[in-house]
Amino acid sequence: MKLFIRAVYLILVGAAIILLMTGQAPRAGRVSDGASGHSKSIVSYLTLNGAQGTAKLQGSGFLHAPNGDWSQAHGDTILNYLTWDGGKWTAKLQGNGFLHAPNGDWSQAHADTILNYLTWDGGKWTAKLQGNGFLHAPNGDWSKAHPDTIMNYLTWDRGKWTAKLN
Description:
Strand order of the largest sheet: 5-4-15-14
Shape: globular
Largest sheet: 4 strands, antiparallel
Order of helices and strands: HEEEEEEEEEEEEEEE
Oligomer: single chain
Number of helices: 1
């Protein structure tokens, strides 16, 4: 019986992690910091012996740092950014590219291999995934592209954030 209960427990924890990875976690599992539009994917749970635990999704997401300050960084599965025309979009990793949602509305999402974003100074750049980082092209001009492990971008409230793959 104990083996059966442990198997069910592991299945439930695994299901919760899958829900977090797909962005379908219950609202109680997502904690927002408010103004920046970022949220932290966590699961709070009770173990079989009644002890409290918390799990945080690692990998398959982004590590965000306000103003490039990595001492204040947090992980997340999404990135809220401004696109070239100032539109508010949310992206998450999907395969070798991104899943983009206008205004964070996943029912309107589409997949793409690139992400058009505004840098801290308002410059228009395009990024795509390359290795453990990004390939950045000014104004989408791939002949001028350069690789980097970070991406400096503007959030929905024009906050200056830096992201790297987690």
